[in-house]
Structure formats: structure tokens, C-alpha cells
Design goal:
Elements (H helix, E strand, L loop, with lengths): L3 E10 L12 E10 L3 H16 L3 H10 L9 H15 L3 E9 L5 H4 L2 H20 L5 E9 L11 H9 L11 E5 L5 H17 L7 H7 L9 E3 L3
Parallel strand pairs: 1-4, 3-6, 4-5
Antiparallel strand pairs: 1-2, 2-3
Helix pairs in contact: 1-3, 3-8, 7-8
Length: 235
């Protein structure tokens, strides 16, 4: 049995709300799983296809030059559709995504009171209940999580790695080697930027009910291991 060396690029959209929430309000985490040997190829395709879109608009081109990235929220879903289609066409067999959707309204106030703990729990529970059972990469030698540093408080950067290794890798063999977690600026990681695009697409569809996002959601959901999102609470 061949064991996989993979990297999971993680980004999010929305926030974990505090207190009483009376209307549906979504927090979305996207995990983009790629074998280490395939990272360069997917980066190349994403860079090329995004540039085709960005070069058509002066303000986007300037933004990319000045900031080294363009956020998913700055492109329309129609523009992103062209990028997604090419990535799936050229690299569809080389990556897998997972989308965790939490409805703040349905999660308890206590659960939401500490956003770092809630984030860690959502990641762990998805890995335990879905990834280890259905992912094509589930037989792991090692897994490295790369998370956008702007999404987490400094004091929380040291908790997820230890938590995942304790919960998943102490008694059970989630991976042969210890789980590793790093936090980086997405400006320096193209596939973190792709994870941002995907999170924004699902957020627009669930939170803002944008119909133009529906086609992208239907395309991207086929890149999951279950053809569905992972919802919390389980509803």
C-alpha cells in the first residue's frame, strides 16, 4: 500500500459569531488537499488562468502587482468559473477539496464562545468522520497543514498541531508521521489563494444566495470525496 505525502491548504470565509444569533449565518472552511508532488503543477495552472482574468481589468492587475494576490471576493463568480473549469480540466485528478459549513444560528452559544477551539474542533471532526473514511489520500505517510495566518490569533497558532496529534494520531494511526501545522501569509502561497477563492464561492452561495455561484458550487462539489459539504451542527 502506497502512503501519501500531502499538504492541506486551509482558508475560510465568514466568522464564528458570538452570542445569540437569530438568522442563518455561515462560517466556511475550505481544505484543499494536494499530494506534495503535484503542488507545482496545480500552482502553475492556477497562476496562468487567474492571470488571464486579472489582465482584463486594470484595477485587478494593479492590485495583483501591489499586493501579490487577488482575493476571491474581488472577482465575480463568472470570472472564477473560467479559472475553476480549467483547473478541474487540467488537474482534477491531482487534488481534492473539503468544505466545512457551520451555521452559527444552529451551533450553541458555548461552542461559539471560543473561536479558536471551535475552528480546531471542526477541522478535527471532519478529518475523523470524513477524511479518514472517504478521502483518496486517507492512507497517509505525512500531512502538512498550511493555514492563512491572518485568520488566527497569534496565541492560537500553537494549539491545532498538538490537538490534532493528540486526538487523531496518539492511539490511532491517522498518519505515519506527526501531523504538522504552519501558518503563513497567503500572499506567498498560491494554493492558499485558491482555497480563499473556493471559500468565497461557497460563502456567496450559502450566505448571500448568489445564483451565479451555484454553477461553481456544483462544479467544485465533485472534487470532494463525498459529493457534499460537511455541515455542522449535523443538520
Amino acid at each position: 500500500m502506497e502512503l501519501n505525502d500531502i499538504t492541506a491548504f486551509v482558508d475560510e470565509s465568514g466568522t464564528i459569531g458570538k452570542g445569540t444569533i437569530k438568522e442563518d449565518d455561515y462560517f466556511i472552511i475550505t481544505l484543499l488537499f494536494v499530494k506534495d508532488e503535484d503542488i507545482t503543477h496545480i500552482k502553475k495552472v492556477f497562476r496562468k488562468e487567474r492571470l488571464k482574468i486579472v489582465n482584463k481589468k486594470k484595477e485587478l492587475k494593479e492590485h495583483l502587482v501591489n499586493n501579490k494576490e487577488v482575493k476571491g471576493s474581488e472577482l465575480s463568480e463568472k470570472e472564477k468559473n473560467q479559472i475553476y473549469k480549467k483547473i478541474v480540466e487540467k488537474c482534477g485528478d491531482k487534488f481534492e477539496i473539503a468544505v466545512i459549513i457551520m451555521n452559527n444560528k444552529k451551533a450553541t452559544v458555548k461552542f461559539r464562545s471560543n473561536s479558536s477551539r471551535a475552528f480546531n474542533y471542526l477541522i478535527k471532526t471532519f478529518l475523523e468522520k470524513h477524511f479518514k473514511k472517504t478521502s483518496k489520500y486517507k492512507d497517509l505517510n505525512k500531512i502538512h497543514f498550511v493555514i492563512d495566518e491572518r485568520n488566527v490569533a497569534t496565541e492560537s497558532k500553537f494549539t491545532l498541531q498538538e490537538y490534532l496529534n493528540t486526538e487523531l494520531n496518539l492511539m490511532d494511526a491517522f498518519s505515519e508521521k506527526d501531523i504538522v501545522v504552519h501558518y503563513y501569509d497567503s500572499k506567498n502561497y498560491l494554493l492558499l489563494q485558491l482555497a480563499d477563492f473556493i471559500s468565497n464561492t461557497f460563502y456567496r452561495y450559502r450566505q448571500k444566495h448568489q445564483q451565479e455561484a451555484k454553477e461553481n458550487v456544483e462544479l467544485l462539489i465533485k472534487q470532494t470525496s463525498t459529493n457534499k459539504t460537511f455541515r455542522f451542527p449535523y443538520y
